[in-house]
Input
Amino acid sequence: YNTEETGKAKPLFDKILIANRGEIACRVMKTAKKLGIKTVAVYSEVDRNALHVKMADEAYYVGPAPSADSYLRMDKIIQIAKQSGAQAIHPGYGFLSENAKFATALEEAGITFIGPPVTAITSMASKSESKDIMIAAGVPCVPGYHGSNQDPQHLLEQAKRIQFPVLIKAVLGGGGKGMRIVHKESEFLEALESAKRESLKSFSDDNVLVEKYIQKPRHIEVQVFGDTMGDVVSLWERDCSVQRRHQKIIEEAPAPGISEEIRKDLCDKAVAAAKAVGYVGAGTVEFIFDDDTKVFYFMEMNTRLQVEHPVTEMITGQDLVEWQLHVAAGNPLPLTQNEIPLIGHAFEARIYAENPRNNFMPDVGKLVHLSTPEASSIVRLEEGFKEGSSIEVFYDPLIAKLVVKGSDRTEALRVLRKALEEYQVVGLSTNIEFLRTLAGHPAFIDAEVETGFIPKHYNELFPPLPKPTPSVLAQSALYLVLRDLEKDRQLSSSTTSPWSSLAFRRFGGDVHKRIITLKASPKDVYHVHVTSSSGRYHVQVHSQSGEVLGSFENLDASLQGPKTLHTEIEGRKLQTTVVSQLDHHGSPSIASAEEKLHIFAGDSQRYALTIPSPSWLLSLGEDAKKAMKGGGMRAPMPSVVVDVKVANGDMVKKGQAIVVLESMKTETVLRAEQDGKVVVVACKKGDMVEEGTELAIIEPLETIKD
Amino acid sequence: LQTLRTLPVNVCRGSRHVHTLPPLQTLVSTSSPEFVERANAMNGLVSELKKDLAAIREGGGPKAQARMKSKGKLLPRERLAQLLDPASPFLELSPLAAHNVYRDADVPGAGIITGIGRVAGRECMIVVNDATVKGGSYYPLTASEETHPSSRNRKGEQAPVHIPSGGAALPHQAEVFPDAQHFGRIFYNMAQLSSQGIPQISVVHGISVAGGAYTSAMADENVIVRNQGRIFLAGPPLVKAATGEEVGEEELGGGDMHSSVSGVTDHLARDDAHAIAIARGIVGDLGAAAGGRIALPAAEDAEPPLYSSSELGGIVGTDVRQPFDMREVIARIVDGSKFREFKKEYGTTVVTGFASIHGHPVGVIGNNGILFSPSALKAAHFIELCSQRRIPLLFLVNVTGYMVGSKAERGGIAKDGAKMVRAVACANVPKFTVVVGGSFGAGNYGMCGRAYSPRFMWLWPNAKISVMGGSQLSQVMSSVSKDPAQHATLEKEIEEQASARYGSARLWDDGIIMPEDTRDVVGLGLALAARETAGTSQTHSSGWDGSSFGVFRM
Output
């Protein structure tokens, strides 16, 4: 930032408060540190030891874990800002970042809100107002007819106005029911009739709406920035088309396949829109882009710094948080539109705690093991959590962002794939494997991005899990043998004894052989035979039916630390990361938790192998499970009780909702398994419950009659 | 041609030699014809031996092994391998026993595998019966092979683990039964060793009949496999011949029966692998027995309980008449909520088992109801074990007393109760008492009341201590007193005297503690006690001390 040129730069703040958590709080603090600005963090009950708390110069407790009691508590946050002497508040994204009330309250308290003016937030928060403003600024919205006139002829007229192809959609529709795509005028009435019929059958209502049908929609957005002098610039566009559950997962800049004219058009329209609302600070104008016609329509404007802002930073070489701080301090924009570079190509992959193979359902848990690619000028990591931290049910399951750049898209993708290969997380499900497959998918490489990308390429994106190779199985078994050797040595009081050093040796008639059973899936079981002589290992991998799949003689193997196995197999030096995890998920009780090995093998493929619990342990676990049952309703996962639908003494029917839980923004309704009477309600709204916590007891009707 | 191998003169660090000691030099030429010839001759013998050992290793052969596997059982050597620590060496003894000895039968290894290996970090003498060999019955040399190692134990101080089965091979009874080194010597040795503080552990995988029955019954702690292991002095055919009674094997001596009714066994396993896992747990909890050491815990040993101690109040409540499961209390006090229960199925109104608190091993005895004869016997047996292993005892008291009534009296409740009281009184280990509920009548003695010299005795605020509970007291009073007003006053008085505050004010205890502090308070006490153990390792005199009997199976 050049102060000499302008000669009127106002000083930046001395201290700011970051009203957020996770990676974005850390990211804002990094820039603040760079600029010599002191930082104040706030934390909830579960975030006491969080990374953002450690990074901050000061940290204050703000309330219990649920967001409503902590990160959304405006009064407390303002009070902390005053107490700590913070002059401004950076809201990050989410939480209070687009809350006009908060911005207003800050204004009243004399604290600067690092974000747009209240008026801009309000205008953009209103769908209808924002659309009007956009139309006035010459940015069209997706054409459609949402009116109540359901006369077929009228609807046909509307369709003609919108221009074919159009989409007929049931107003109450969902799951594709009552939905028809109509390509030609001649097909319209027949399609309408069938859509209405289906809608009536499915939803007892035959009202439909008509919209422009976009065959290959893309999500393209433009980063804009305004200052208090009324200048607005764009920092080019981003493509965020590939989404799951209507949420972004991978973003890139610039958008591939966009001509200079279209880029200019997009950016000009976005700047015009921002100017129309007197926008100040960082904002994003989102468009839906028809890849076939190259026509784009306005969707909405986000009045905050977006999750994916780093891709823009990568191609422009700018620090957008620094920009925000300058603008908030009342300084002009650091660069004029002509000075903003666009160099190379950047990707951001969002590392989420979720299970892509289970409809991307979020997961919670501890980051038992975390190893990330090394940061460099082309690989950037935005992390909010370190190894040992937990991803909590209360907040967004975003673990980290991996941002890469290259001189072109192909290079950037190559860097991304390598970085994803080096990214290791154990403890909860993540989308890392999925992202890697996605980044290597030919259609993605060919930039055929669209919002329907995942369903369109589903089968290739979810190939069957690879079977572990004999070498991987041998390495896993060696890891266990070596680890137990270490354990044995610790158990014994005399480690210097030959009883310790002569490990595995047999004298007399006995021979040493250890058979380790490893399970890749319930039907994919292997038995690995390990013997040892003079410090070398012999490993034979058998299938369940006894067929020898691989045989390795005279292996040299050692553990370098608790997670690293060094071996030489088939003339190749291997360093394998093996992480052991006790898996409580899906086991009948804590007593019979299975051990799982996560293997990050030399071929950069990741495997998870389960060591089956002995049958006696499972049998004990089953007993414990039976003993626990007894009409009690238990939480299936760590969650928050959002609603208790019954009171003590209520009679309930089978299937009736009893307790509603929320975990990671996903609700689960627990229902009565049979008719009965509620005899105990052991939870209340707002309670945080652990997996297995008893929530209510329903006495079955039959027992009551007795 | 002569190869001279000279080794460098080396003064190793940590070497015990104070002066420089040059190693011996070899003058052997390994390529000389004499050398080669002699080596070849030796190799011939070695490979012959290997061949024999390989055959012996197969026990009764593939057919017998397949039969055993088909019943879901582990083979003897598989049991051995699972029992040993994964990396342990195994020093097998006398593998050639009975090799080519009996003309009528081939009895590989004399039907047993014996040797020394490490279990849970301790060197143990291990004896495994091989049921694939002649149904596991005892041949003359079996007895000899088994008595050899058990005699050796006397000096070796390893804890033997027996995996017995079978009985005497009847055709050979004369060579098995009568003499000093015959069958009987096994049990003599077991008793002698136990009395010397060397634990005897037994796992019953199969049929343990007649003499075999005693290898388990004489053990200090034993395990039986459910629906598989059987112990009886005589099997059904002999019973029928002797008494005319017709009874099935399982009913006569199955695991369920022995673990819950007779108390002949202490642990009921689901299968072979479970039984071995339990045996490993037992060895892990041998404490200072057989020369073992109880190491002072490192800070990281103290794994906190899985469940919150703040829940103790809600579990126990303040009404002494409301029952609760003491395991719920134990789960909130001991490290990692891990409790290796002893005799879980027997005498269920008392809960006994091994655990750690702040890393210090402790034997826990808690009440789950009225003390019956089996409960008292179980507690007495458990106290003996802790005493032998020098493991401190923690009494979690919530006891209304010993069972009364004609059935209980005829069953000898007084004498069985007395065994428990005697064990508590004589156990020469630190004792800690926490009264978490009531402590009434003779139950107070059996559960280490103040008169039994616990190092510390703490009360929870709800604790009640008196000669009997309020309601019984009232009934007794009305039968002996004729003045209702007077006995109402007395009842009230006694109720008050029973309260925790009343007793604590008179120093009958070491204070009332918050329930949630129990783990920490006991942990501090155990740490104090642990400081003493280092210097006081019990030595048994070899003379006529006339007192030590080892562990009685009660």
Observations:
- Residues 470-489+506-616 of chain A form a domain with the Glycoprotein, Type 4 Pilin fold (CATH 3.30.700).
- Chain A touches chain B at residues 481, 484-485, 487-489, 491-493, 498-499, 502-514, 590, 614-617, 619-620 (CB under 8 Å).
- Chain A has six domains: 3-114, 125-142+217-343, 144-212, 350-453, 470-489+506-616, 630-705.
